[in-house]
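Input sequence (64 aa), recorded before submission:
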Amino acid sequence: MKNYIVLYRIETFAFQAWAEDTEHAEEQCLNAYPNSGAVWIYQCEHGTGTAAALNDYYTEGLAQ
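Predicted structure, token format:
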């Protein structure tokens, strides 16, 4: 399994998941927070933290 951070909109803003792929990570986030909507999913090393996911979202995600 790979480590993913799912950025989403509701309550807190990040969810850490051990998942097989991005879809699996999003599914885990939706199971934990049913009313959330995933905004960005970032694969990274465990312990990286949300700052790297946010940076990737702002530099890569918004550029698309």
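Checked by second reader. The mean pLDDT is 88.
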